[in-house]
Specification:
The complex is a heterodimer of chains A (268) and B (302). Chain A is an all-alpha fold and 268 residues long. Helix content of chain A is 78%, strand content 0%. Chain A has one domain. Chain A has helices at residues 2-12, 15-42, 47-54, 57-67, 71-87, 90-96, 101-131, 141-168, 172-198, 207-212, 218-228, 232-235, 241-260. In chain A, helix 1 (2-12) crosses helix 7 (101-131). In chain A, 42% of the residues are buried. Chain B has 302 residues and is α/β, with parallel strands linked by helices. In chain B, 32% of the residues lie in helices and 30% in strands. In chain B, the strands form three sheets. In chain B, strands 5-6-7-3-8-9 form a six-stranded mixed beta sheet, with helices on both faces. In chain B, strands 11-12-10-13 form a four-stranded antiparallel beta sheet, with helices on one face. Chain B has a three-stranded antiparallel beta sheet with strand order 2-1-4, with helices on one face. The relative contact order of chain B is 0.13. The chains are: A mainly alpha (268), B alpha/beta (302).
Chain lengths: 268, 302
């Protein structure tokens, strides 16, 4: 309980965190709103198609795929949250005061969990507001919950990777730069090297790619929505043992890095 | 014998080939006030960092309160290492709330701790607007939260004005009077001498000297005496069983005894041996003189 109380006091006073969270919510809402407007305009005269496209779980799936881009805001805010503890030396002071590494990690897991819940709830709220309220009722409910669940796990996974970056680096800008480079090119490059060395296709099993591939890419999500494709079932990956193993590995790495590395200030 | 608070066994830290602390073995008991002395780079902060769980020892071990080095034991320690560390965008009170929630101390204890260091008018002000001295006071308030068994203070008066230094010294003496164990690292040797009962002197990670203040200082005082005949006086003083050294320096006889004797005892001894003193002056070495002498003996300042 002390750990959660500690994280709550810290988050409550962290303006940067709330600003980015609001920015995330605004971007997500704008995407839903402008996405709907775009479809309404382009399919103006075909009301029947509009109905099929927007008021089914395919619409929610497409929007969830597009909204994946905004996870980057959440990753940045998390990296900032972690690295600033080192920049101001407060991490060192917290450990001196008796905070254990495991409590520290549980606190960070709580933040990641909170952000994942916020992302999922915002997605569901936007779907109800801008697509159709019936998406979370009746026969749609199960499929919608699968989509929201996948978004939750995807955000949790991506933020867990961001946490690992936050633990490694000592400056916020450096952390954000390295994380961005990793998700844009780093993992693709690693995948290429792994595939070349092992002669087996292992690139699709690298962590960021695995978490992202729980939902279709924005393009195939939109295509599926407009053209009518395979539906939600085959396009959403329900987290299997591999993803859970990744989460365990990521958090174990975070714990051991904190446990066995000297805690230094990055400034002053 | 009072309770063992801290024991270290051959504690050692190496940073990529550089020895920061070498084989430090130490025992600190309840109520003792230890001063950690040493020039820059002597290993004071590294030693404290290891004891406070932020740096891993290369070898050796230590134990707090006879229970090892588990994280939760540090909740019984109030520590300020190198400099105060707070979130600048949060108020003093909010920062102390964080410390209180780690230590499991009720938030109601924050106000008394803040009042103790005289920061109550600035409780709601953001720490980023505090001066270094104010941050230092806030750091000490954080240390005092939850009435810890041990205080570890690394340069606690750093950046403070003379009034602030006097206030903190008073506070340390008050905590000492309560029987609290204190470990104080400071460059201000006068400060250490005034408050400490024990001293650990370090140089390049090696222990130069350690023990109670009187042990470390040794025979720290000597007498300058004069009589009608200094030769006769010297001959009499030579008969004193506790005499350690004797030298005639100009018009005076300089005598040092193995135990700190009072002027009255020395005067009576001379009188009993039919020597009337013309003058008697007692002079003590300060910790600073002693420290500098030891540094010189072990080869220079660094």
């Amino acid at each position: 309980m002390g750990t959660l109380k500690f994280e709550l006091v810290r988050l409550k006073n962290y303006r940067f965190f709330w600003v980015f969270l609001v920015l995330y919510a605004a971007c997500l809402t704008l995407t839903f709103y402008s996405g709907r407007e775009l479809i309404v305009q382009s399919l103006g005269q075909f009301e029947q198609i509009q109905y099929i496209v927007m008021k089914t779980t395919r619409g929610l799936l497409a929007m969830s795929s597009v909204s994946g881009y905004f996870e980057v805001f959440l990753s940045y805010v998390l990296i900032g949250l972690l690295v600033q503890e080192k920049e101001y030396g407060t991490l060192k002071q917290h450990f001196i005061d008796g905070l254990s590494r495991s409590s520290w990690m549980i606190g960070k897991m709580f933040v990641v969990l909170f952000l994942s819940v916020v992302a999922s709830v915002l997605l569901a709220g936007n779907a109800v507001s801008f697509l159709d309220p019936s998406l979370f009722a009746g026969e749609n409910l199960n499929q919608s919950l699968i989509i929201v669940g996948a978004v939750f796990f995807r955000v949790f996974g991506v933020l867990s990777i961001a946490t690992l970056f936050g633990v490694f680096v000592s400056h916020t800008v450096k952390g954000i730069f390295l994380f961005t480079a990793y998700v844009l090119f780093g993992e693709a490059l690693l995948g290429y090297i792994f595939d070349w060395v092992t002669k087996v296709e292992v690139s699709s099993w690298l962590p960021y790619g695995r978490f992202r591939s729980m939902l279709p890419t924005p393009w195939s999500g939109l295509e599926n929505m407009i053209m009518g494709g395979e539906g939600v079932g085959p396009m959403v990956e329900i987290p299997g043992p591999a993803l859970l193993v990744y989460l365990v590995l990521l958090w174990s790495a975070i714990y051991f890095l904190m446990r066995f590395k000297d805690t230094a200030d990055s400034s002053g | 014998m009072s309770q063992l608070i801290l024991s270290t066994q051959n504690l050692k830290k190496k940073y990529s080939g550089t020895l920061a602390v070498a084989e430090l073995s130490l025992e600190i008991r309840q109520g003792e006030v230890w001063g950690l002395l040493g020039p820059n780079g002597s290993g004071k902060t590294t030693t404290l960092s290891m004891l406070l769980g932020v740096t891993r020892p290369t070898s050796g071990d230590f134990s707090w309160f006879g229970h090892g080095r588990a994280d939760f034991l540090r909740k019984r320690i109030g520590a300020l290492l190198e400099r105060p560390r707070f979130y600048p965008w949060m108020s003093g009170r909010e920062n102390l709330k964080l410390t209180a929630s780690i230590k499991g101390v009720p938030f109601s204890e924050i106000k008394p701790a803040i009042q103790k260091v005289g920061l109550d008018p600035f409780l709601k002000k953001k720490v980023g607007q505090y001066s270094l001295g104010m941050k230092q006071r806030l750091g000490i308030a954080a240390c005092l939260l939850g009435e810890p068994d041990v205080l570890v203070l690394d340069e606690p008066t750093n950046g403070m004005d003379p009034q602030g230094i006097a206030d903190i010294r008073k506070l340390i003496l008050e905590e000492k009077a309560k029987g609290r164990t204190i470990i104080l690292a400071s460059h201000i040797l006068d400060e250490v001498e005034k408050v400490c009962s024990h001293v650990l002197m370090l140089k390049l990670g090696q222990v130069m000297s350690s023990g109670s203040l009187s042990e470390v200082m040794g025979a720290s005082s000597w007498f300058y005496l004069s009589a009608v005949s200094n030769n006769e006086l010297a001959a009499v003083l030579n008969k004193h069983p506790q005499l350690q050294s004797l030298k005639i320096e100009g018009e005076f006889v300089k005598a040092q005894f193995s135990q700190d004797l009072g002027g009255e005892e020395v005067n009576r001894f001379c009188f009993d041996h039919q020597v009337c003193l013309k003058s008697l002056t007692l002079r003590s070495t300060t910790l600073e003189e002693n420290f500098l002498k030891k540094l010189k003996e072990t080869g220079g300042g660094q």
